[in-house]
Amino acid sequence: MKRTDYINWDEYFMGIALLTAMRSKDPNSQVGACIVSPENKILSLGYNGMPIGCSDDEMPWEREGDPLDTKYMYVCHAELNAILNSAHNNLKGARVYVTLFPCNECTKAIIQSGIAEVVYYGDKYHDSDSSVAARFMFKKAGVKLTAYTPTGRRAELEL
Ligand SMILES: O=c1ccn([C@H]2C[C@H](O)[C@@H](COP(=O)(O)O)O2)c(=O)[nH]1
Ligand SMILES: [Zn+2]
């Protein structure tokens, strides 16, 4: 008889997004994105990090100060990285699992790529202008928003 306590698709893909986020060097917010086809095949992954050639050790990770000395000018967001990493895949009708609700800039990229659903875990910037604009665009574009409901299942990995 088959096992019955296997993880479901949502746990699997959000779990992979959470694991992917662990690659981020951002000291404050580690974000992961996992793009999945309608057939539940993983099309791409991404996390927030500095652009290729911009050393993680030489770029700023500060949140405040002179804008040119903060991470915000430079860091490439998880969703954008996942979309750019999927250059050879058609993302029409895909779902993206993200550990943090997308900002307005990632929202534009998600919409333009044809992704049809965003499943998000955290939403800590819900009331920011960026999140308000993101929700406005998703609604206009007909992209489905689904808040991930944690199941409480814990995954332990010995690495
Ligand atoms: O859509 C998004 C929004 C943000 N991120 C990344 C960009 C930054 O590295 C962090 C946010 O840092 P805070 O210190 O929480 O302001 O998250 C992203 O990947 N995708
Ligand atoms: Zn973003």
UniProtKB/TrEMBL annotation:
Q: Which GO terms describe its molecular function?
A: dCMP deaminase activity; zinc ion binding
- Domain CMP/dCMP-type deaminase: start-end pairs: 8-131
Q: Which UniProt keywords apply?
A: Hydrolase, Metal-binding, Nucleotide biosynthesis, Zinc
Pfam families according to UniProt: dCMP_cyt_deam_1
Q: Which InterPro entries match?
A: APOBEC/CMP_deaminase_Zn-bd, CMP_dCMP_dom, Cytidine_deaminase-like, dCMP_deaminase, dCMP_deaminase-rel, Deoxycytidylate_deaminase_dom
- One Gene Ontology CC term in the entry: cytoplasm
Superkingdom is: Bacteria
Q: What is this protein called?
A: dCMP deaminase family protein
